[in-house]
Amino acid sequence: MSQIPEQEILSDDDQIQQEFDALLDDYSKTNHRQKVELVTRAFNFAKAAHKGIKRRSGEPYIMHPLAVARIVVKEIGLGSTSICSALLHDVVEDTDYTVEDISNLFGPKIAQIVDGLTKISGGVFAERASEQAENFRKLLLTMSEDIRVILIKIADRLHNMRTLGSMPSAKQYKIAGETQYIYAPLAHRLGLFRIKTELENLSFKFEHPDTYHDIEARLAGDEDARNLFYKEFSQPIYEKLTEMGYEFTLRARIKSIYSISRKMASRNIPFEEVYDILALRIVFKPRAGMNEKDQCWMLYSALTALYKPHPERIRDWVSTPKANGYEALHVTVMGQGGKWVEVQIRSERMNDIAEKGLAAHWKYKSGVADESELDKWLKTIKELLDNPEPNALDFMDTFKLNLFASEIFVFTPKGEIRTIAQGATALDFAFLLHSDLGNHCIGAKVNHKLVPLSYSLSSGDQVEILTTRKQTPQPEWLDFVTTARAKAKLRALFKKEEKSQIAEGQKRIEAVLKSLHLEAENENIVRILNHYSITQRNELYLQVGKGILNLEDLSKIVFKQKAQNVFAKYLKLPFGGSSEAVKHETVPIDSKIDRKKAYKLTEENAGKTYKLAECCHPIPGDDVLGYVDDSESVIIHKRQCPVADKLKTSYGERIISADWATHKVLSFVEVLEIRGIDKKGVLIQILKVITEAYAVNIQKMNIETEAGIFVGRFFIYVHDTEDINNLCRDIMKIKEVNSVQRVQE
């Protein structure tokens, strides 16, 4: 008789106690002052508050706050205040207790953090609230007041992602989408690299399960060969560093499944051609009395004496750390068998900051004046909040610009170094230095050469901003800037100007109506809007205020329409074909989409109840989801589509899961890119496979050859992804063909 696992025979109370003991054990291993009594009080309070409540997975609800608290202490490295806040983070939202109760029992600081977490719980991305910019603004406000709020929120999201399997598909897409769109970049920006990687991987796993498991299986298949190579590659390094008298650890780092997939997609290469799957990390204990940076370069010298370095793949983040505090020296060297391997060199302190992010950065701060790049970043967040975008999507896009993954370093004329986003222009740099410089900028000198405002900067450039008092910001400047700060400053300025122009336009329209003895009432304004084909009242006022619309013929419009008014009610009858009637006839009330069920994509309802998105051109077999628009029509997007990412984040309640039914009638044009050796007869063989073996029609093809290599793009009609996969497999059997990839046009 098989033995029942111990976990299954534990009662709820035993499970809860076991998890709390594990939390205390994690806490005891930290350097924080051990406030066990306070943590125990918070646990008992939360346990009593959530008593009898279960999660969707069936476990007691308190297991979730306990898991979040464990992530907070063990994986982020925070102390008792954050542990207690994590344990209590759902109490105010889910029970009758108030923030005041928390303050009385646990003090104002814990209460403030719990209040911040309650404001953004569900909050930013709740069913309806996700459509409002104000809720997203709350997230940033709480973050700028106490960064621990967002660190605990990231821990909360990480645990939700780890247990996402118990949720229905549509919810999985929504939660995975907003995690990919906001939480993973936030974790990266706060230096939580390991958590960022896990969030990306889990999002990818739920959005593309088949691709995820395929790459996972391939990694497992290569594991023995990879371990053997790692052993051969690391042994000489181990011996060399031991000989130098260093205390160190060597760690193998495997590229994440999400990163592998992204590389395969962006470069159109198969798994076998992703060569940087394995990397080596050296974490050393620095010697006393010696500079850490100097010791990194000493280890670099020792490493490059063993293996030849790639001349263009050295990343020096010890001289100038990344904006999220990351410090390390990266070098790519040629290992055994002609394989390139990236080696990362870090001190224990650098590694701590890379693993724990901001929490570790605080630990190593030397004083109040020690302002890091992260502190500067939080200041820019506060500036963004002064003038938030009224539209939620615009605001989130502006904020996401601030979560840049890559930075460049440029110099002022005096030689001071500044960090700015990759792709930034001369105008961005002007706004980075000062708003006044940006507003009056006419150009710049980059490395002593005159360049326009739109010039893209490169790392190492020396930039001098040229200004004149006569210059004022122009609307086209929004096309010249790429950073959040510059966009926010310009939009705030233009918004101010627009307000006065709107007020002026409204005044002019009211004056004209008054001269015609008419009131500025809704009916008259709507007539004017319809005449000019404008939907928004403010847009009408703005165009009049700017002098774009001429109001001289207003009397003719209004009186003409008034004369027609007698017949208006008859025109609205069904035979009059009013747009309102058509709108309601198109979608009967009983044809509403059931958002809880997976939507079946059949050939019969194609183009009727669902449409394929123009932005990503999904075809049967692709991983897809549906977005229900205002007319209850379903728009089908690929799950990895950038437009779908925004929809998942901002209109989560409209996202539904969708499944393809068998499609063998409709045809779709897809593009196959084929590369190989240009030998006589190879094109004939490819065409034979496409047209004879699969009876597939070709719309057009482009073939280029250079130095004995050909690259061909074949535009072919297929029914689904199965057709494409079979075609690719058989074309690859042709000896001269090197790669076959489906590409997005």
Instruction: Enumerate the strands of the largest sheet in spatial order, edge to edge or round the barrel.
Output: 1-2-5-4-3
CATH C-level name of the domain at 6-162: Mainly Alpha
Helix count from the secondary structure assignment: 30
> Main sheet, how many strands, which sense, barrel?
5 strands, mixed
Approximately what portion of the residues adopt beta-strand conformation? 15-25%
Give a count of the beta strands, DSSP E runs of length 2 or more.
19
Model regions low in confidence, pLDDT < 50 over at least 5 residues: 1-7, 123-133, 561-590
CATH architecture of the domain at 6-162: Orthogonal Bundle
Mean pLDDT: 78
Under CATH, the topology of the domain at 6-162 can be stated as Hypothetical protein af1432
Structural class: alpha+beta
Query: What is the end-to-end distance?
Result: 59 Å
Helix content: 40-55%
Under CATH, the homologous superfamily of the domain at 6-162 reads: Hypothetical protein af1432
What report would you give on this structure?
Among the domains are: 6-162, Hypothetical protein af1432 (Orthogonal Bundle), CATH 1.10.3210.10; 215-363, Beta Polymerase, domain 2; 373-491, Beta-grasp domain (Ubiquitin-like (UB roll), Roll), CATH 3.10.20.30; 668-743, 2-Layer Sandwich (Alpha-Beta Plaits), CATH 3.30.70. It is α+β, with helices and mostly antiparallel strands and 745 residues long. Strand 17 and strand 18 form a beta hairpin. The chain is 49% helix and 16% strand. Helix 11 packs antiparallel against helix 12. The two termini are 59 Å apart. The radius of gyration is 31 Å and the shape is globular. The strands form five sheets. It has a five-stranded mixed β-sheet.
